[in-house]
Amino acid sequence: MTEDLMKNARVTAGGRRVLSSIQKASIVEDWESSGLSCPEFCRRHGLIASQLYKWRSDAKSGAVMSIKNEGDLHTKAELEMLRKENEELKKALGESPLARVCNACVHLRMSLSLKHV
Which range of residues forms the domain containing residue 22? Predict the structure, then answer.
């Protein structure tokens, strides 16, 4: 499986292989199920040990966060930016005319229910 992924990997003009995070996670799974040490697995497949450890770390954090962007993990900076944008949008929505109408409806219902008591 790993051999196929490495053979079919896109190669940049500089000679680097480019793999998606899904492909990297698959290679990590192959390594973990192989029973081989990281250096031995890397020698057999032409990988660098630090690279494989990084992929394993990325795969675990992606599994924990369950946040992926078309197969690539978001960086912490991107996630923080998205959280801030989300908060700004929530604030803007809270001040929207529709939100004011909804709040008015709630207040009207409450006042009507109090009159019947």
Answer: 1-74
